[in-house]
Structures are given as C-alpha cells and as structure tokens.
Recover the amino acids of this structure.
C-alpha cells in the first residue's frame, strides 16, 4: 500500500468518505434553503429543526408504529413538509411585504420552540436508530472499507439533489418557479396560482430537510440539538456558494464536505472552523459567492 | 413580492435631542440610582449588562438596518480576555475591562470588514458563521478553560481604592459604565454621523449617490457596536467572576436580538426595557429547564407577527413621540 504524506490510506479515504457524507447533508440542506429563498425571499432558520424532526419522525415510526426505515424515508418527509405548509399558511405568508429579516427572526423563533419541545421530551441525549438490514455490512474496496449504508446516503442524496435540479431547470413546472422568482406579479397575471406555488415550494424545501434527517438518523444519533449546529455550517455553505444557482448549491455542499474531511486528516484542530475560514476568504475575493449573482 | 413598506427600525427619525427623551433619560437614571435599595443588586447588574449589550446591538439594527446574528462573539470574547487579564495577569479591574473591550473592538474591525461586503440576510448569516468560528476557537483554546470557562475571577480594587467585592459598590460602577455607554449611543444617534447611518438604513443607494462612502460608515458603526458589546461582556465577566461558553455561543446572539425586538427595534430606550423584561422572565422560568427556550421562541413569533414595534415602540406611538 502507498502512503500519502505519511497518512495511511485507510485514514485518508475514511475521512474522505465521512466528508462526502457530511457534504451530502450540506448539499441537501443548502439546496432546500436556496429553493425556499428563491421564491419566498426568506432564510429558513427552522431548517435545522425540520431536519431534526425528520430524524425523529423516523424514530417515532419505528418505535410506535413498527414502520421500517423505507417507510420512514417516504412518510417522515411528507409529514415534515406538511408542518411546513401549515407554518407557511399561518405565519410566513403575513411577512412577505415586510423586511426580509422578519422572516429570519420568525423562523429562528420557531426553531427555538421546536428544539425546546423536543428537548423537554427527550433530554439532550440521543436516541439510537439502527441501520436497515438491507444496508448492513459493507465492501472492502482494497484501499478502504466502504459501509453499505454510507454509500447509500451519498447515492440517495446525489439522486435527490440532481432530481431537484432537473425539475427546476428542465421542466415546465420548474420554469414557472423560476419565472415566479424573477417576477411573481407577472406570473400571477398569466393565471398561475403563485401563492399556492409559494406554499408548496416551502413545503418541498422543508420536506427535503426532513428527508435529510431520515438519512442522518442511522449515522448520527437522533437528538434534539442535531440540527442547530449543522444549520450554521449550512449558512456558511450558502454564503460561499451564493444562492443564485441550484447546481452551485449542490457542488458547494459536496465540495466543502470533502474539504472538511481532508482537514480532519491533515490538521484536525481546524476541522470545525475550516468552512468558516473559507467563507471569509470567499467574501474577500468574490463577495457574491462562487455561484452567486451580484445584487 | 418585495415592497419597501416596512423596514426594520424605521420608528425614529428626528435629529435634535427632544425634551421628552431627556426627561425619560432622567427618569431612568433616577430609577437605577434608587433600585438597588429595593431590588437584589446582582440581578440588577445582570440586567444592566444585558441592557448595554442590547443597546450596542440596537445601534446596528435600529440605526443602520444591519441585523447581526453574531454579537455573542463580542460579548463572549471580551469576557474571556477580561477574565483572563484579571485572574492570570493580575490586572486591576479597569485595565481588565479595557483589554476585553479593546479585543472586541479589534474583532469587530475584522469581522465587520468581512460582513459588510454583503447586505441583508447574507449579513446576518455571515455574522452568525463568524461567531460560530469564534465559539469553536474558544472551545478549543487553552486559556478559556473549555467547558469549565474561567471561574473565580477576582473583582479586584478599582483605581486602587474602590473595593468591588461589595455588591452595592460594584452595582454603582456597573451603573456608571452602563450610563456612559448609553449616553455615547444617545450622542451617536443624534450626531450628523448618526443621521448618515439612518440615511443608509432608509436608502443605501441614495446615500451613495449623495457621495457618502457608506461602507466606511457601516464599518465604523459595526466597530462601535462591537466595542460597546465588548464593554458589556468585560463588565459582566468581572461582576459574575466568570467567563463561559454560554456567552459566546449562538443562543446568546439570538437572545440579544430577542431583547431588542421585544423592547423595540430602533428605539433608544427599547433595549433597556427589553433587557429588564426578558431577564426577569428568565429568572422566574429558570427552574423550568427547556421551557426557557420555548418561551423565548414564542415571544419571537408573537413579536414578529403582531408586535413589531416592541414595548417602547408602542408607547412611543401612543404618545406620538420617538423614544
């Protein structure tokens, strides 16, 4: 076997895979944020809490209804998305005419409430969630051991991200969505129900967070605070990528996950902060973000 | 979707110091002079530190329209430096507080220069991310004591003859610091500099077209706000003889937003009222654990949906004068 700068390949590729996994979550969450921001002009601070709700959804379904991981993968995002639709109808829709910052404050408040309620019920310790039988075990690739579940997470996340990109950039529905992002009044004048589209977009973005939560449940422990630290990193990812482009969000998410993984190998002390440092550098060089449009 | 109908903190616009604001200020000062004889001074000191912190935050959101979601980094890092200076270096309290405040100013200069490169929501996300970076730094650095923080910081003897171990003496020192900070902000807001800040808040492109280098003004305002937040943090560390991760973590950044929102964004007295209301509330809810977070969240939601002017903003509307 070869050594790379004195790092054993198992450690290098192991961290690379972990980085890719983290990148999958960054990509899915920043994608959801970008889709919501595009149409609603709101930064959804509740995104982390909704990701946590997705994971808890999977846990509840297994614990109380005996429904497997695969059912959870469908039902949990739908339920989380539905709560998103309710929140949009009851609260967010009153804020569109105000300063965008109020949307941030409201969703921050909702995140506090959600996290507080779950912490009241489950404490700060995590609940374990086991990997589904079909994805147990793994393959030895010669240079590293690849657990099946981790491979599945990367593939599932890539599929969902690319499907979202396809729908938004290549279908008629997506063209309505992009048009409404540019000029909602005009699109409404063409007889398209823009308010309903906004509601469903928010629901979709939130469901994406819930889906990420279900994927995360067997990897990380299902804990009330699992979303709050993640969401701040995702904000930095969004600043780095800029929210102008869907593909940009996906690429930035995966790329930064990998960079973070590599940092863990070469300079572990900085692994928590490397994304924030990159954000600072990007702000110096290209303030609009790597894929952003200057506004 | 976007109309400029209601910008954050557009409640006050007058320039000269109106008489009712002076009256309100005297009322506030008298209340604080008498209060420690009726209310537990340690509680009052906590509220005053948070009030100064919120006033500093309000200078940005209320008068420049910049929402910083990372102000905990100034409060917390200043607290650490001030505690470290007093405990390890054996600095007297005035120098400890000064070094903490200077640290916050320097941090404000660096983070401000980065954050003002973007506006609006991005500004909030950038400040939040930078603050999280500082949090991780404080978590890992040796001198901060990690999860334990810096404990048993000596209060010391101010200027060599004022012994701060007495709570009442400490209280009047904190009050003096708070009033100095408050008056400075009061002065800034009513100065020509403050008028330009408001112009940037209302319409930045127009301020630029009038020839103002808005980035300079935003950066100066950011540094001022960071410095005063640092002053609050340094003082807090000396008062409670403790610097911990709580003060530098993101919920603290959220808390100062909530205090200011509840009291009234862009009102001079709002942050003070908000701090007293919220700190009292947390005092009574403390034994309920996670409910504190839930109640904070609920207040956020109610304020944003139905109570955007905040307590002082509503009073100002009733008496038809800016407060």
């Amino acid at each position: 076997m070869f050594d790379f700068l004195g790092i054993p390949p198992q450690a290098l590729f192991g961290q690379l895979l972990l980085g890719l996994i983290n990148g999958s979550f960054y990509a899915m969450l920043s994608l959801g944020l970008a889709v919501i921001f595009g149409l609603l002009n709101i930064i959804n601070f509740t995104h982390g809490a909704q990701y946590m709700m997705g994971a808890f959804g999977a846990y509840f379904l297994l614990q109380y209804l005996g429904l497997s991981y695969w059912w959870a993968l469908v039902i949990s995002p739908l339920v989380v998305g539905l709560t998103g639709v309710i929140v949009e109808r009851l609260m967010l829709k009153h804020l569109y005419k105000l300063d965008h910052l109020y949307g941030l404050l409201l969703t921050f408040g909702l995140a506090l409430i959600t996290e507080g309620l779950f912490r009241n019920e489950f404490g700060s310790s995590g609940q374990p969630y086991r990997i589904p039988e079909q994805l147990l075990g793994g393959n030895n690739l010669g240079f590293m051991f690849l657990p099946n579940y981790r491979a599945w997470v990367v593939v599932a996340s890539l599929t969902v991200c690319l499907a979202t990109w396809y729908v938004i950039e290549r279908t008629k529905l997506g063209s309505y969505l992009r048009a409404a992002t540019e000029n909602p009044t005009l699109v409404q004048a063409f007889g398209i129900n823009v308010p309903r589209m906004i509601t469903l977009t928010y629901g979709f973005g939130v469901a994406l967070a819930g889906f990420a939560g279900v994927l995360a449940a067997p990897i990380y422990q299902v804990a009330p605070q699992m979303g709050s630290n993640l969401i701040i990193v995702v904000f930095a990812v969004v600043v780095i990528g800029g929210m102008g482009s869907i593909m940009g969000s996906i690429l930035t998410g995966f790329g930064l996950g990998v960079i973070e993984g590599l940092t863990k190998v070469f300079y572990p002390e900085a692994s928590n902060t490397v994304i924030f440092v990159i954000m600072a550098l990007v702000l110096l060089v290209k303030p609009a973000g790597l894929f952003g449009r200057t506004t | 979707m976007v109309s400029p109908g209601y910008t954050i903190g557009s409640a006050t616009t007058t320039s000269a110091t109106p008489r009712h604001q002076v009256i309100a200020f005297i009322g506030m000062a008298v209340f604080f002079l008498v209060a420690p004889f009726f209310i537990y001074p340690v509680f009052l000191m906590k509220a005053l530190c948070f009030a100064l912190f919120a006033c500093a935050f309000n200078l940005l959101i209320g008068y420049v329209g910049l929402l910083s979601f990372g102000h905990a980094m100034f409060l917390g890092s200043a607290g650490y430096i001030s505690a470290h200076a007093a405990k390890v270096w054996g600095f007297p309290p005035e120098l400890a507080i000064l070094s903490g405040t200077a640290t916050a100013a320097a941090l404000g200069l660096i983070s401000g220069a980065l954050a003002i490169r973007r506006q609006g929501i991005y500004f909030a996300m950038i400040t939040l991310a930078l603050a999280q970076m500082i949090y991780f730094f404080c978590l890992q650095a040796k001198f901060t004591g990690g999860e334990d923080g810096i404990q048993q910081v000596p209060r010391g003897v101010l200027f060599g003859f004022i012994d701060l171990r007495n709570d009442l003496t400490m209280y009047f020192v904190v009050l003096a610091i708070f009033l100095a900070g408050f008056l400075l902000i009061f002065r800034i807001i009513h100065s020509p500099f403050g008028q330009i800040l408001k112009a940037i808040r209302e319409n930045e492109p127009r301020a630029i077209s009038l020839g103002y280098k808005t980035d300079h003004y935003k950066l100066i305002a950011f540094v001022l706000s960071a410095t005063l937040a640092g002053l609050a943090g340094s003082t807090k560390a000396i008062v409670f003889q403790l610097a911990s991760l709580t003060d530098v973590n993101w919920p603290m950044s959220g808390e100062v937003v909530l205090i200011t929102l509840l009291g009234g964004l862009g009102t001079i007295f709002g942050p003070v009222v908000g701090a007293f209301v919220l700190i009292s509330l947390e005092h009574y809810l403390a034994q309920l654990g996670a409910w504190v977070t839930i109640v904070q969240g609920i207040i956020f939601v109610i304020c944003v949906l139905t109570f955007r002017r905040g307590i002082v903003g509503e009073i100002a509307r009733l008496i038809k004068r800016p407060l």
Remarks:
- The radius of gyration of chain B is 19 Å.
- The CA atoms of residues 17 and 23 of chain B lie 11 Å apart.
- Residues 39-248 of chain B form one domain.
